[in-house]
Amino acid sequence: MREKIKHARRLVVKVGSALVTNNGAGLDKPALDDWARQIAALRAEGRQITLVSSGAIAAGMQRLGWTRRPQEMHKLQAAAAVGQMGLVEAYEDAFSRQGLQTAQILLTHEDLSDRTRYLNARSTLTTLLDLGVVPIINENDTVVTDEIKFGDNDTLGALVANLIEAEALIILTDQTGLYTADPRKDPTATLIGAGQAEDRQYEAMAGGAGSGISKGGMITKIRAAQRAARSGAHTCIASGRETDPLLRLAAGEDIGTLLYATSSPLQAKKQWLADHLQLAGDLVIDDGAVEALRSGRSLLPIGVVEVSGDFSRGAAVCCRSLSGQEIARGLVNYSASECRRIARKPTSAIESLLGYVGEAELIHRDNMVSS
Question: What is the model's pTM?
Fold first, then answer.
């Protein structure tokens, strides 16, 4: 089963607050340097890595001299604002020494639930990855409200894995992995090497919440693995204090706990598109476009004859033949009004007609399922 991680080309790596701040003592810059070195080695193998890092609030607490995580929302947000400055600077320094550029991305869960913002975030992240940049993502704790109270970056890591269609999510923590019971309380607990992410028995084994520095705990990591599995991503939970954990996991070594998905990312996404989307409009397409879609290709503007409905970018629409038969459904890259303006036009004309080019395709084949 470790081959699932070994052959993953696009990975999301999440590191927790306890690791980033050395259990609250301050930013652990040697640890950041070490992760940067390992990520640089993986980049050299042709892999694309996105880093989701906790630590802004914990780093801010250290800078402000606070030993306990505050309960007041305004203090949490203040700590995040102070800590994010040092966190990003430390990462930038660490990766620059490896010859890699980084980009800071601050997200809220709302950014990934709104279709338009979801597609915007996806386009930005995939562009950065294609440019060889390492995106460093954190929750936007300075402006969010309930997310600070209830959210966690394990969940954010899973959402990012879904967003960019990563094949694997690696969660580095201060624990060795998932045990049959809480090893801090039960000396007979044994490490679980691998299992299906969707197996609900693991929630009962996950133990309680995290430390006073971290927000989540093992239960949030189990639920993150379940969420990542919905788009076919496999999750590995391992200790960030092991020697070269990222390199060893990427080599297929048996460390930590692997919670694997039972379907491929594309299969899971296609199933979601087929079963769960309410259609916001119709695109009537010509015979050439029908043939292209049935051959597994994307829908281009030139193949669209008619547009019906009032929808926004990212909405789910139906592609119909001239006779009215449903050919496919998918997530459209332009609004209804924009689709009408570029229908029957070549891709090269999009910029002159709209003033910008969002995507070359009206609906990308990866965001489409045949009917």
Answer: 0.74
